[in-house]
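Q: Sequence in, structure out?
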Amino acid sequence: METVTDLMKTAGPGRHLITTAVHPSNAEPVIAYAWFDVIGEGTDALWSGVFADAAAVTEVVALGFIVAKGSVVLGTTSPTGEETVRGWMVDGHALRPLTADQVRDAFHETLGPETPSVTYRTAFPVPTSAPA
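A: Exactly. Output:
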């Protein structure tokens, strides 16, 4: 699925953890995650990770598009050590970027008090995930 590949390519330099979750009606949540590294920027950027983990994330995002419920969270540690978190919600068959405040609120509800070293950022649009 190009959506996950585009998100990973657009993530920028650093160490990343992409986590996706789908909450189907009357079923247990389905969650997948993958660590990946990006070196460089733009079209010259190189990324590495475990293909099987990235494939699992892709499958869960695809399931989210089918049931129209789910989320994607991208945690990043930049080469300078800055920690950031961005998030997207499944909106129909696309990922809708969340604002920094929406991501902060979601993490506060699920994880408790904020960690001062983490910066919540507004998510970027994912080109192949634009609403039809």
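Strands lie at 14-22, 30-39, 46-49, 71-77, 83-91, 94-97, 118-120.
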